[in-house]
Amino acid sequence: MAESQNMKDLAHARTKVSFDIKDMTNFLHGGEANVEQRRYIIDLIAKDPVFNKDDWGWLNHTDAVKRGIAMSTRLAEIKMEHDLNDLDFATMMEAIDDTLPIVLHNGAFIPVITSQGTEEQIEKWIPPAEKFQIIGCYAQTELGHGSNLSQLETTATFVKETDEWEINSTSFTAAKWWIGGLGALCTHAVVQARIFIEGKDYGAHVFVVPLRSLDDHRPFPGIEIGDIGPKAYNGFNKMDNGFARFNKYRIPRDNMLMRFSKVSREGVYTKPPHSKLAYGSMVLLRSVLIKQMALYLSRAVTVSTRYLTVRRQFNNPTSRNDSDLNPGLETQVINYPMVQNRLFPMIAQSYALFAAGSVMMEMYIGLMTGLSSGNIAALAEVHAMSSALKSYCTTFAVAGVEESRKLMGGHGFSYFTGIAHLFASTVPSNTYEGDNYVLTQQMARYLLKEVKTARTEPEKVTPYSKYLLLGLNRSAFSRTTCSVAQPDDWLNPAVQLAAFEHRCARLAYELSDAVEQGGLDTANPKTWSDHNIECYRISHAHAQYVMVLWLIQAVRDAHNPETDVERRAEPASVKVLERISNLHALHTIQTNLADFVEDGYFSPAQCQSLRAQVKAIVASLADDAVGLVDAFDHPDFLLNSALGASDGDAYKRLWDKAQSEPLNRRQVCDGYEEYIRPLLKKHGEFKL
C-alpha cells in the first residue's frame, strides 16, 4: 500500500529532530529500566482482549460498569500472575486508560490502612486485601458534605456494653456519595465518620467497615448501597461511583484505625500526637494526581502535535513553509505561528509536570518515612504543597487537554481523536480530592504561618518559603525591580526565579497584612472567606514558582556528571530541555503578567522584550516538536487516536473508525419506516 502524504509528513518531521528521542524518553521516565518496565506492563494490557477499546464509544452506563468490573477482576489476576508491585499496578491503570471500580482498592483502601492502622490491624486487613480476598474503597464524601470534614454527618457511636461502634447515617444527606468502587464491586470500605463517646464529639476518624457478604455479595443488613448513575461527559462510565446509608450498623471497636488516635475498651479516647497526622493519605492521592496530569496532558499534546503536523490548510507562506519540498501542497498547520504559540507551551508544561510529579512523590515518601518514626516536621509543608500543586496542575492540565482538542479544528470534536475520552477522564480532577478553589486555602494558611516565622525566627523558614525573607525590609523590597537589561537576560534561570520569588513574597505579605488589618478593625471585622481570592492567587503563585524551580533543577541535573545516571541526558537533549525550561518559565510569567507589573517590578520595556523572547523560543522549538512528544513514549494502544497514531495516517484511520459506527451496518437506518418515511410522504409523492 502506498505511503500517504500524512505518513510522509510525520516521517519527514522526525528527520528534523535535533536530539536522540530514546535518550529524552529515558530522562522523562527515570532511566532505561523504567522505560522498559513501563512498555512491558502496557504490552500486557494491550494484548489482553478484556481491555480492547473498540466498542467503548457505544457503551451505556450499565454495560460500561459491567465491563469495568470484568476489567477490574482481570487486572487483579494479572497483578497476582506476574507478581507485580504497586508501581506496576499504577502503570496498568495508565495503560487501561479508564478509571475502574478497583482503582481505589490499591490507591486508597490499602494505603489508608497501612498508614493509619496499627501493626495488628495491618496484619489483619492487608494480606487478604493484597490477595483480593476482600476489595475496598475509601468513603469520605457525603451527599451533603465534601470538603468540610468536620461537619460530616455519618457518626460512629461507641457502645461500651458490646465493645462496638454503631455506624449511622444521621440524616438523608449523611449518605456516602461519589464513592468509587462502592456501587457494585467492593466488599469493604474505609469510612470517615465522627466519633461520639458518651455524647462527646471527637471529630472524624477512619473505620474499616464490611459492606457486602463474602458469600453472595449482598449488602449486610443495616446498609443500603447503590450506584449514583452516569456522570458528566460520559466520564468515568466504567466506575461504579456509589452511595451508602448506614442504619445503626455495628462493627467491632478494633475496626477503628488506631495508629494515631485510640479508643480503649473502657471508652477512653487518646488523641493523636498531631492533629494532622491522618493527612498522609490525602497527600498521597494529591501527589499521584500531579504525575497523572503529566501523563494526561502529554498524551493530549502528542495527539495534537502529530495531527497538526500532517494536517494541511491554505497556502499561506510561513517561516517554515515546505513549498520547496512539496510544491503545490497546502501549508502544514503546525507551521503557523499562532498554532505554535498555543501548542508548544503545553508541551513545556507537560515536561514540567513530569519533573514536579517526581519531586512531589519524593516529598511524600520522605514524609511517610518520617511519620513512621514519629517525626512530623515535614507534614505541614508537604500537605500544603500537595494541595497547592493539585489545584494548579489539574486546572491547567484539564484546560490544556481541551485546548489540544480545539487546536485540531473540526476533526478534534470526533470521539476517535482519543481526546474526548481524555477530557472526560481529567475534568473531574478539578473537584475531587479537594475543590481546586477551596484547596488553595491550605497553602495560604501555611504561608501565613511562615510569614510569622520569617518575622520572629527567620532561620526556621522552610526552603521553599525562603523568598519570604526578601520582604522583611518592606521599604527596600518595594523598590526592588527586575534586573533584565537585554532580551537574553530572560534566559538566565536566576532572573526567572527572582521574578517568581518577588511575586510570591509580595502576595504573601499582602495577604498577611489584609488578615491582620481585618482582625484588628473591630468596626469592620473580616472573615477568612473575605480573603479567599487572595488565597487563590498566592497558592497558584507558589505552585508556579516550585514548578519552574523543579524543572530548572531537573535540567541542571541532566547535565551534571555527579547526578544519578537515570536522571542524566545527553548534551543534545539538554540543549532542547533548556529551551523547554525557558519557555515554561517565561510563558508562565507572560500569562500572569499583571502580578509582576502591578508593583512596578517589571517595566513596560521588559514586558515587551519578554513577549519577544517567548515568541523566539517557540519558533526555535518547531523542528523538535514531534520529537518532544514522541519522547513521552505513549504507544498507539494507549493514545487510542485515529488522528494521533504514530504512523501519521490520520485520514485513513479516521475513515476506518467511522465505518465501525453501528448506524453504518445498514443502508437504510433503523427508524426510517417509523419516522422518516411518514414525514416525507405526508404531503404526497415528490419526484426527483
From TrEMBL:
Occurrences of domain Acyl-CoA oxidase/dehydrogenase middle (ranges): 137-231
Residue span, Acyl-CoA oxidase C-terminal domain: 492-681
Keywords: FAD, Fatty acid metabolism, Flavoprotein, Lipid metabolism, Oxidoreductase, Peroxisome
Domain Acyl-coenzyme A oxidase N-terminal: 20-135
Pfam families: ACOX, ACOX_C_alpha1, Acyl-CoA_dh_M, Acyl-CoA_ox_N
Domain Acyl-CoA oxidase C-alpha1: 279-448
Subcellular location: Peroxisome
Pathway assigned to this chain's UniProt record: Lipid metabolism; peroxisomal fatty acid beta-oxidation
Catalytic activity: a 2,3-saturated acyl-CoA + O2 = a (2E)-enoyl-CoA + H2O2
Gene Ontology terms describing biological process: fatty acid beta-oxidation using acyl-CoA oxidase; lipid homeostasis
UniProt-annotated catalytic positions: 433 (proton acceptor)
InterPro entries documented for this protein: ACOX_C_alpha1, Acyl-CoA_ox_N, Acyl-CoA_Oxase/DH_mid-dom, Acyl-CoA_Oxase/DH_mid-dom_sf, Acyl-CoA_oxidase, Acyl-CoA_oxidase_C, AcylCo_DH-like_C, AcylCoA_DH/ox_N_sf
Binding site for FAD: 141, 180
Swiss-Prot/TrEMBL cofactor(s): FAD
GO cellular-component term (any): peroxisome
Molecular function terms, GO-annotated: acyl-CoA oxidase activity; FAD binding; fatty acid binding
Family: Belongs to the acyl-CoA oxidase family.
The protein, known as: Acyl-coenzyme A oxidase
Gene: ACX5_2
